[in-house]
Amino acid sequence: MGKKSELLPGTLDLLILKTLSRGSLHGYGIAASIKRISGDLLTVEEGSLYPALQRLLLQGWVKAAWKVTETKRRARYYTLTREGRKQLGEEMSQYESMITAIGRVLQDA
Amino acid sequence: MGKKSELLPGTLDLLILKTLSRGSLHGYGIAASIKRISGDLLTVEEGSLYPALQRLLLQGWVKAAWKVTETKRRARYYTLTREGRKQLGEEMSQYESMITAIGRVLQDA
DNA sequence: ATCTATACATAGGCTTTCTATGATTATCGC
DNA sequence: GCGATAATCATAGAAAGCCTATGTATAGAT
Question: Which of A9, A67, A96, B83 could share a disulfide with B10, CB 3.0–4.6 Å?
């Protein structure tokens, strides 16, 4: 029957950019952070996350560097670029106006 | 570069079901209603709308009947079924919990 | 030793939405 | 009457986005 997405489609980039705006993180950490902060309601699957990060890299909104985690594992840390910060602002305001518009349609009466 | 969608992807069915919950409408009218109520922020393209209506028909959430409009044109009027009303309720609460969860991630701090 | 959790990555598929196109007909301005 | 515009339905094909499944590797716990 086709399960529903774990996310609202179209919001993944925004969620990642916002998460990185709080500080650099590796991919696994981004997913964990989104899951935790959302109260377990949002799950970013690895098959969605890594391609998304590639897109963000390509567009220059994040940059990446290999490092070693506190737990001694190699991981790629992503950092928001200046462009990425700008993009985040734009996506935030677009998102908010979308949500407002949808809210109007969904409200009773 | 790929323009952004006119909608938040994944919300179209919900918008249509909600619109029909206010009364039967034909396709063109559904699109017009969503556009108007959203303050012109949401535009449902015909190439999105009609396939979506086919899906809703297939799933039994709406039914359709040909009629003549006030302006003497033939049009297919869609009506929410009982199942459709149930589905609307489910999608509403899913949507709201998604939005809440996303809001947590997007809020500062 | 084996299992679990951490960590990255890609391929293939499905669903949804968009663009483009096409057809029909009522109404309005000229 | 004629041409333009708006109303109305519909489909095909492409593009995008997310998921499932899979593969690799290693640190730490049992």
Answer: A9
pLDDT profile of chain A (109 residues), mean per 10: 73 98 97 96 96 96 95 94 96 96 92
- Please state, rounded to an integer, the average pLDDT across all residues of chain B: 93
The boundaries of the domain holding residue B30 are 12-106
In a domain, B1, yes or no: no
Category of B2 on φ-ψ map: left (φ > 0), alpha (ψ -120 to 50) or beta: left
How far is the alpha carbon of B16 from chain A, nearest alpha carbon, in Å? 9
Q: Whole-model pTM? A: 0.92
Q: CB–CB of A38 and B101 under 8 A?
A: yes
pLDDT value at B13 more than 90: yes
By C-alpha distance, the chain A residue nearest B22 is A109
* Rounded-to-integer distance, Cα A27 and Cα A33, Å: 10
Alpha-carbon distance of B15 to A106, in angstroms, equals 7
How many domains, chain B? 1
Give the bases of strand D that a protein CB approaches within 7 Å: 7-13, 15-23, 26-28
Q: Is residue B5 situated within a structural domain?
A: no
Query: Within a domain: residue B99?
Result: yes
Chain A residue closest in CA terms to B42: A101
CATH of the domain at A70: 1.10.10.10
Q: Where do the DSSP E strands lie in B1-109?
A: 25-26, 62-68, 74-80
